[in-house]
Design brief:
Four copies of one chain form a homotetramer.
Chain A: E1 3-11, H1 19-26, E2 35-42, H2 52-68, H3 72-78, E3 80-85, E4 94-102, E5 111-118, H4 130-147, E6 155-162, H5 167-175, H6 185-203, E7 228-232, E8 240-247, E9 250-251, E10 254-261, H7 267-276, E11 292-299, E12 306-307, E13 310-311, H8 322-338, E14 344-347, E15 358-365
Parallel strand pairs in A: 1-9, 2-3, 6-7, 11-14
Antiparallel strand pairs in A: 1-4, 2-4, 5-8, 6-8, 10-15, 11-15, 12-13
Helix pairs in contact in A: 1-2, 2-3, 4-6
C-alpha cells in the first residue's frame, strides 16, 4: 500500500505554544495518530541552559496525550520530537509536523519518504564512541527500511536527536569502573552529535567503517556526512532518528533535495538545494515562496576563525556563544535565497558537512 | 584642479589595532595628510557600554599624531572617525580609510567624490530636535560643496557621527533652565541619530522642511533619508558629516551607488546597489569580488516584530540586544550577495531608510 | 478553629522539576489540598524572554492535577504560583510551598499567618493606574481577612503576581478607544509592579489615598510599601496576592519578620529581619542555619547609578540586564548574613522599598 | 634608608579614564616616578574579548609618558599594570596606584612593603608548565628581596599578571617542533594563572617542589597558594609580579593582612582579614570605612556546582560566563562586610586558594 508523507509548518507564539498543532488536529487537517515526528525551532539560547526545548516537548506531549489516548510519557516515546534552540538574527520560531498516512497511489518518480527508528538506551560510556556510531547506523538502516528506501542515494536528510553526559551519568559510569569519552558535559554534546553523524555517514556509505574509531570523533573533520543533522539534549538516553528521502512507493506532491554548504555564506549551495527540490531560485531570491514547505540546515562557526580569509569573532565572543552567531549568519544567508525566515537552522555541525559548512535540505510542493 | 578619492579597506586584529593603517602610510600607499575620514567596524556590542569604539579612535589618533605632526587631540579634530560597534554573525572587523589627493584628470562621467564638514558643538537641548536637524543640513550642504557636488541626486551615502545625552549633560541643561528631548540616555542615541538623518533628508530634498518638527523625530517613520547612515557616540559634541557621491570633476576608477533595502532580507536591493556600482551580481552571489571595495549599510529590527509576516524575536530578547540580531541578519544577507564578510553594517536606522529596512551603498573599482 | 501555616523549601534540578514537591505530597508530608501558594526561583534571565517561569508553573500544575483531581487549568486558578526568574551570582533554584491546615491550638503570641486573594481580570487600560492600585488594595484586605489579620502592622510580606501589557492587549484597548499607561511592553512590567505595590501600601496604610494618582506610578519613588514584593508575568490577567503575617489564632512554630534594606549592601537590615524572626545573626553570619526556613527580598539597581557614592555599571551594561546584576549583588549580601544561597531574591522593586533598596522578610522556626 | 609605600584608590568614569591618576600627579600628591604598579577593575566582561583592560593600560601609558619623559612603551615596561575586567553586581570601576618613596623613619612593627619583579619573556611551550612555575618563583623571591622581606610569612598578597597562548603563538611553537600545554586559547588563561599561582606557592613555601609537575597544573586543586592572585592577558609575554607584605624597614601607616575564603560566601574570612589589618568588623558591617584603603580578592565558581550543598547555576549559564557570576557574588559578600563596592575582586582562582574559595587581602590605614 503506498503511503504519503505530509509536512506542516506552523508558527509558535512562545516555546510552550502547542495551539497551532492542536488546531491542525482538531480541524481534521492531520490525524494525531499519523504524526511521526515534530521538529521545532524554539527561542532559547540553544546551549546548556536552554529550557525552551524541554518546555516545548512537554507542552506538545500534554496537548497530544488526550488526542492520542496516551499518557504524556507514552507520547514522547512514540513520536520523535527534535527541538533546536536558538532563533538568532531573523529566524522565526516554528514547528514542523511530519505525518504519514496511506495513499491511493504512489507518485511516479517518487515523493518525500519518511522513516523513524530509535536505538536502545545508551550507557554513558557509549556516548561519543564507536558503540554510538554503530547503534546509530543500525537505526538509520531501520528507518530507511521503514521508509522503503533501498538506495542510500535516495536519503536527503537524517535528523538525529541524541543524549549527552551529565554529572550524574558520569558518576554512574565511574561507579561501575567505566570511563566516559569526556568529563566535560558541554563537550559531551559535541561528541554525541559527532558520533551520531558518523553513524549516519556509515549507514549511508559516506565514510567506510575502516576509517572510524573512538579517536576520530571530534578530531578528524575530514570525515563527515553530507546529510546528517544531529542535536543533543538532556531529556533522552537513546538516539531518535528521522530519515527523510525521495523514494518510489510514496505518494503526494512533496519533494526533498539537499546540498552541502562549503562555508557559512554559500548562497549557491542553497540555490542548488532549491533547484533539486524543483524550485527556481531565480536571479537571487526565490519568487515562488508558497511552494517552499521547509528548509533544514546546520550552521557552525568556522573553526579556522576565518570565512573566505576574513576574520570572524564568533569563537572569541564571551557574551554571545559562537553557535548563536553562526545560526544568525546562516539564517541570513538562507533567508536571502528564499525570502523567508521560518527556517530550521540548527547549530553544532560536528561531522555534519565539512569544517565551517553544513548540509542543507529543502522540502517543496510539486 | 581635479581630485581623486581613494578608499582602503584593512582588517584589524583587535579594536586597538592601527598597525595596518600605519603600514599603508609608512609604505607610501597613502599620505597621512590626505586622509579625510576613517570608518570602522569594531568588535564590541555596539550599545551603551561598547568601549571598543573609543579605544579604536584613540589608537588611530596616537598612531597618526607623529605622522601628521599633531597632537592626538588635533588629529581627532581634523579627521572624521566613525566607529560602528558590533560584528555579529560573520561580520569581520575592519577599517575603511578615505583619502583625497589631487588628480591629473577627471574621469569622464565622474567618480567617487568625498566631502566632510562639521557642525559647531551642540548644547544638550538641541539634540534630537530641529536645531540638530538644521545644523546637520547645513553641514551636509557644506560637505557637498567641498566635494563639488551640485546635484543632490549625485549623493549616495552620508555618514554622520553625532553626540548623545549623558547624565552630566542633562544636568547642565537643567541648571540653565533648559529641557532636553529625553532624560533616557540610551534613547537619546536614537533621537540624535534620527534628527541627524532628518537633517540629511532635508539637505538632500528627501523630506520637505514643512514636514519637520521636534515631534516627528523618533515618531513618524514615514519620513526618512534613503542615503543617511548615522551613528551616535559619547566622545563628541558636534555632528561630523562625510558625504559620498558620484560626481564630475573627480578622477580615479572608484564608483559609488546606493539602494534601499525595504526589509532586512531584501537581497534584490543589495544586487541593485552592486549593479549601480558597475558590478554584475550574477545568478546570486557576486563573482568579481576583487573589484568590490566597500559595502556600507544600516540594519534595524523591524518594529512590527515581523519580517514578511513571520515573527522575529529580536525585540523580546533580554540576553542579546535587538540591534545585535539585526546586524547579524543583514550581514548574512549582504554576505550572501557579495561573498565577503568585511561589510560596514551599522545598527540603529531611525529615519534612515524605511521602517525595518535601511540604505545600502556599494563602492567598486571600475 | 485555629490554623497552622507550613512552609517547605525544596531545591529544583531544572525549571520543569516538580518531583520534589510531588515527593512531599506522596510521602504525606503535605496534603495537596492544603497548598495555597507556591513561590519559586527559576534559572532564567528574569526578563521578557524568560520562559522558565511559565515552564515551572506548567510542570507544577500538571503534577498537581491528578493529585487534586482537577485539570491543570483549575490548579492554576486555585493556587497562587509566583515564579521569579533569575538566580544570578550564587542564588540557588528552589520552590517554596505554602500550606494551611487546621491546628489543635493557636500558638501564644501568634505564628505565621497566610491569606490569599485574587482580583478580577484587569482590562489593559487599568494596568499601572489607579484602577489596579484600588483593586490590589481590596485584594490585600481580603487576604488579610482570610488570614484573620486585623492589624496592618501584623503583615510582614505581601507577594503579588500581576499582569503586563502585550502588543495584542494594547491593540485590544486601542480598538475600544482606550489608551494604556505605556505602549512599551517591557516598561508595562514596571508600571504593573509599581501600581500593585502602591495598592499594598494603600491597604497597609503606608501611603495615604490622597497621595496617589496615575501620575505617581513609576515616578514618585518617595511613595513605597516596606512589605510589598511584586512580580509581573504574561501568563495572567488578574493580580494574585499572598499575604504573610504574624498573627494570633495561628498555631505551629513558624515566625515571620521583615526589615527594609535602604540600599543593596545593607547587611544590618538583613540582620534586623533575622532578629525579628527570632534568630541570632551572631557576629556577622548566622550560625543556626537549620532554623531558617525562608528569606524573601527585592533587589533593584540604584537609579542614581551610585551605591554609597560609588559608581555601579548595572544600568549601562548592554550585555547583562541591570536587574540581573542587582539580584546577584543582593543575593551575595544576604548569603553573607545567612550562610545560605537558596534565597527568594526577586528583581524590579518599583515602589517596593526605597529607591535602590527593598524589603526583606525572614521566616524561621521557633 | 627606610621606604614608605602609598596606595591611592581613584574611581574611573570609563575604561580609558586616566584623568584621576593624572590629577594625583599634577597636584603633587604622588610623584609619577614613584609609581611602581597600577591595578584596576575595568567594566568589561573579564573574558576573552574584554578589550577594556588593554584600553585602560594604553590610556594610562599615554598619560604617564610625558610625565615620565618616556615613550608609552617604556612606561608599560617600567610599571606593573594589572587590569582585571568585570565589575558585575555592584562592583565599582577603580584604579589602585601603588607608589614607593623614601621615608624618614621605619614604622615600629613594620608597614606595608612593596616589591615588583618581572620574568623574562616566556616561549609558548613554557606556559602552564614547570618552566613558568620556576620562573615565577624566582621573580617572587626577587620582588621579596626588593621589598626587603626576608620571611615568607610577611607576604600577604602576590599579584601576578601572566601571558596566554594565542593561535599565532601556538603555531610558532609547533613550527619549532614544540608542543604547548593546551591548544585551547581560553583554557591557556587558566593554565597560565594556575602555573603562576603554583610558582608563588613554591616561593612562599606553601607547596613543596616535590609535589609539583606539569601534570598537577589545572588538575590537583589541593595544591594552592593562600596569597596568590593571578590574571592572564594577551598583551604581555612575561610574568609581572607585585609582592605586598607587612615588613620591618618600611614607614608610613599602611598595614596589610590576608585571609582565605573557604567558599564564596565566607563572610567570617573577610572579617578576619579586616581584623588582621587593624580594623574592627563590628557586628557585621565595618563602621570605620574611611580607614579601609583597599580590598583585593579572588572569586571562582565552585567546581562542584554547589555552595554549602546548594546548587548554583554558574557553570551551566551559556548567557553569562561563570566567572562573571562569581565576581558578582563575592563582591556582594565582601561589600556586606565592608560597606563599600570599590573592591578589587578578580575571577579565575586556579590554585589561588582552595576549590571554590580564594584569598582576600585588606590594606588599611593605621
Amino acid at each position: 500500500m503506498p503511503r504519503r508523507a505530509s509536512v506542516f509548518l506552523v508558527p509558535t507564539r512562545h516555546p510552550g505554544d502547542a495551539a497551532a498543532v492542536a488546531a491542525l488536529i482538531d480541524a481534521g487537517v492531520v490525524r494525531a495518530s499519523d504524526i511521526v515526528a515534530i521538529l521545532g525551532k524554539t527561542e532559547g539560547n540553544g546551549c546548556v541552559n536552554d529550557f525552551t526545548r524541554a518546555y516545548a516537548v512537554e507542552a506538545l506531549c500534554h496537548m497530544l496525550a488526550p488526542r492520542l489516548g496516551l499518557t504524556a510519557e507514552a507520547v514522547a516515546a512514540r513520536i520523535a520530537m527534535v527541538m533546536s534552540g536558538g532563533t538568532e538574527g531573523g529566524l522565526s520560531p516554528h514547528l514542523l509536523v511530519f505525518a504519514v498516512e496511506e495513499a491511493e497511489a504512489a507518485t511516479p518518480g517518487g515523493a518525500l519518504a519518511l522513516g523513524t527508528a530509535f536505538t536502545a538506551d545508551f550507557v554513558p560510556e557509549a556516548l561519543g564512541r564507536m558503540a554510538q556510531i554503530h547503534a546509530t547506523a543500525v537505526a538509520v538502516r531501520a528507518a530507511m527500511a521503514q521508509a522503503g528506501i533501498e538506495n542510500a542515494a535516495d536519503v536527503h536528510y537524517v535528523q538525529v536527536k541524541c543524549p549527552l553526559l551529565t554529572s550524574a551519568r558520569i558518576a554512574a559510569a565511574r561507579a561501575r569502573g567505566a570511563t566516559v569519552a569526556t568529563e566535560d558535559t558541554y563537550h559531551s554534546m559535541a561528541l554525541s552529535r559527532g558520533a551520531s553523524a558518523l553513524g549516519v555517514a556509515l549507514a549511508l556509505g559516506e565514510v567506510p567503517e575502516a576509517a572510524l574509531s573512538d579517536a576520530v570523533v571530534g578530531a578528524d573533520w575530514s570525515l563527515f556526512s553530507a546529510r546528517a543533522s544531529c542535536s543533543a539534549g538532556v531529556e533522552l538516553l537513546r538516539n531518535e532518528v528521522v530519515v527523510m528521502g525521495q523514494a518510489p512507493g510514496w505518494g503526494g506532491d512533496l519533494r526533498i533535495a539537499h546540498a552541502v554548504m562549503p562555508d557559512a555564506i554559500a548562497l549557491p549551495a542553497v540555490q542548488q538545494a532549491l533547484r533539486g527540490a524543483g524550485l527556481d531560485p531565480g536571479g537571487g531570491q526565490l519568487a515562488e515562496t508558497a511552494r517552499l514547505v521547509a528548509v533544514l540546515a546546520k550552521a557552525e562557526p568556522s573553526p579556522t576563525g576565518l570565512i573566505r580569509g576574513r576574520r570572524h569573532i564568533m569563537a572569541d565572543d564571551s557574551d554571545i556563544n559562537a553557535t548563536r552567531h553562526a545560526r544568525a549568519l546562516v539564517g541570513g544567508v538562507i533567508a536571502a535565497a528564499v525570502g523567508r525566515t521560518d527556517l530550521f537552522v540548527s547549530g553544532g555541525a560536528e561531522h555534519q558537512g565539512p569544517e565551517g559548512g553544513g548540509p542543507i535540505a529543502v522540502i517543496a510542493r510539486g
